[in-house]
Specification:
By secondary structure, this protein is mainly β. 0% of the residues lie in helices and 58% in strands. The chain is built from no helices and 11 strands. Strand 4 and strand 5 form a beta hairpin.
């Protein structure tokens, strides 16, 4: 089984920056991709950014392109989300998601983090 631990959320003023981290741990697994999603009150959870661990390809939602950057450290099984030029519309709970494959059985599995609150307000 894979566990995810997120950190880095908090309160920031409009125009400010935050960096989220998500570390995956467990045994006998191979990460396929990791990403960040967010859910604002009354809204559906949406993709923010994702990256594949093998090729490093990235995918961003249109609303964060040019402001957010996802990166990874494969050696640490960690993914980061650098968020710049934050605005109140970015306020949400941010969730880390990992797609992974157990080494000793078949299939692909998904694990979600517990979520971290990001609030952009003056």
């Amino acid at each position: 089984q894979v566990q995810l631990v997120e950190s880095g959320g908090g309160l920031v003023q409009p125009g400010g920056s935050l960096r989220l981290s998500c570390a995956a741990s467990g045994s006998a697994f191979r990460l396929l991709s990791m990403g960040w999603y967010r859910q604002a009150p009354g809204k559906q959870r949406e993709l923010v950014a994702a990256t594949t661990t093998s090729t490093g390809s990235t995918n961003y939602s249109d609303s964060v392109k040019g402001r957010f950057t996802i990166s990874r450290d494969n050696g640490k099984n960690t993914v980061y989300l650098q968020m710049n030029s934050l605005n109140p519309e970015d306020t949400a709970v941010y969730y880390c998601k990992a797609d992974w494959r157990p080494l000793l059985s078949v299939g692909t599995r998904i694990t979600w983090g517990q979520g971290t609150q990001v609030t952009v307000s003056s």
